[in-house]
Write a structure and sequence with these properties.
Elements lengths: L1 E8 L24 H15 L4 E4 L1 H6 L1 H9 L3 E4 L12 H19 L5 E2 L13 H7 L4 E2 L21 E4 L2 E3 L4 E4 L2 E4 L3 H6 L2 H13 L5 E4 L15 H8 L5 H11 L1 E3 L7 H6 L1
Parallel strand pairs: 1-2, 1-10, 1-11, 2-3, 4-5, 5-7
Antiparallel strand pairs: 6-7, 8-9
Helix pairs in contact: 1-9, 4-5
């Protein structure tokens, strides 16, 4: 059973949890680890012969176009992860439209191909901002992967959303983020924190439960979980725990998953005729 692997290419200082401790005006002056972390990911995928989807922040693509081309040259899919990496619940419709258009423009210029997929920062499309879907479709996005089909334990969520890929608007598909239900409680699987929190055996057991029902898992991780020597400025204790807990476990845990499950890019999760037309 094929599962779907993705990476949100952002730097350690761009995480919304850090916004109270790191000024956006200082981004240009801060030590970056996005190239090192992404290269570790690329080396791991090459060794395991796995292709994935890389959702890239436009601000990063502007400053590291060679990195974006290296990802594409490795046979991986390029998608948009916004331009400024602000959660959508902080944006007006007009701001989201401008941010998405700029991200798509930059990635198209760097790669020569328009990105088909989009993921909102923090997976921040949910019940309160479903209006974002029409703005993505307006900007030529063919599929989104931002929605958790549940609301507990995640930044955002959409109650009643399907767990399998579905057409969420005319011509726009959703590849939902994954959760597995235990005793009636949805346990998130997508996102590095959940892999860092769980033991390898428990995480694999949850994935196998979904796969045994014929359901794929959609997973995602970040470069700052693969190159972990950087400042850790977040002072809020719950956010600090979520952001920094067990960072050094991600590389060996993901390597174990890649050796145990089949993975591919998110475009492969769509029906073949939809993917071909995207």
């Amino acid at each position: 059973m094929k599962n779907y692997l993705s990476f949100d290419i952002e730097d350690w200082f761009q995480v919304p949890f850090a916004s109270r401790d790191v000024n956006r005006s200082d981004w240009e002056t801060l030590q970056s680890n996005v190239v090192d972390g992404t290269q570790t990911i690329l080396d791991l995928l090459s060794r395991r012969r796995v292709s994935a989807t890389f959702f890239i922040v436009g601000w990063i693509a502007e400053r590291h176009p060679d990195l974006v081309r290296r990802i594409a040259d490795g046979g991986h899919e390029i998608g948009s992860h916004s331009y400024a990496h602000r959660p959508l619940d902080e944006l007006s419709p007009e701001e989201l439209d401008k941010d998405t258009a700029l991200s798509v423009e930059i990635l198209t210029h760097v790669t020569g191909q328009k990105p088909r997929g989009y993921r909102a920062p923090m997976g921040s499309i949910g019940d309160d901002n479903a209006w974002a879907i029409d703005i993505l479709r307006k900007n030529g996005v063919r599929y989104d992967s931002s929605i958790y089909p549940s609301s507990p334990f995640v930044y955002s969520g959409m109650r009643g959303a399907k767990a399998a890929p579905f057409e969420i608007a005319n011509g726009l598909w959703e590849v939902p983020l994954s959760a597995e239900t235990i005793a009636g409680l949805p346990i998130p699987l997508s996102g590095g924190f959940y892999l860092r929190l769980a033991s390898p055996g428990v995480f694999q057991w949850l994935m196998k439960r979904k796969n045994a029902r014929g359901e794929s898992c959609v997973l995602y991780y970040h470069p700052w979980e693969f190159s972990t020597s950087y400042p850790r400025p977040i002072r809020n204790l719950p956010k600090r725990f979520i952001q920094y807990h067990n960072l050094d476990s991600v590389t060996p845990k993901l390597d174990r998953l890649l050796s145990s499950f089949e993975f591919g890019p998110l475009i492969d999760a769509l029906p073949k005729d939809v993917a071909a037309a995207a």
